[in-house]
Amino acid sequence: MSKAADFPPELDYLVQAFTSFGFAQFGLKFLLEYPVDEDNQQEGENTHKLLFYRHIEDSVITSYCKPFKKSYGGMKNMKPDDELLKYNEKQIQIHNKIMCRRDKIIAHSDVEMQRISIRRIEFAPGLFSPQISYDLGPSLGREELIDFMDLIIRAKSSCFLAIQTNSFSRENFHFSRGINLGDMEQ
Hints:
Elements: H1 9-33, H2 47-65, H3 89-106, E1 116-124, E2 127-134, H4 142-167
Antiparallel strand pairs: 1-2
Helix pairs in contact: 1-2, 1-4, 2-3, 3-4
């Protein structure tokens, strides 16, 4: 086997994006195959399952959005109207909704989009305790999840084709890049 070369920048962002879209596809496949009881999204017996689904949905959205966000180290950002992706108008709308959800709820918790509420509950005379109510369950309906899956498959396929085009023209297609976690800035 030949020695690994430096990872070429034109392939780096494609491989990173392909991997992120793959993680998103895997998580979304789980959500579609094992749907949550959307009629029972209140606290109670179903709370843990609903929170679990929320975490998976958040992970799916984060993985999908990663290639579109700023990356330190010179990684190129994808855009929904890039020649590579060629999203149509409906796909751009879905993409924008997912990006907004990531930016305002998952990653930054903008005040107007908070997913918890706290009420003051008196449990004894003069003694109060906060009661936290979480927004439970998936935030995307089944049809939105299906549209989102179509979007992920399109993005992943576009990256795959671009990787094939860029890599098989090279004699030596064995690239590697290591990460030293000790070198990462806090």
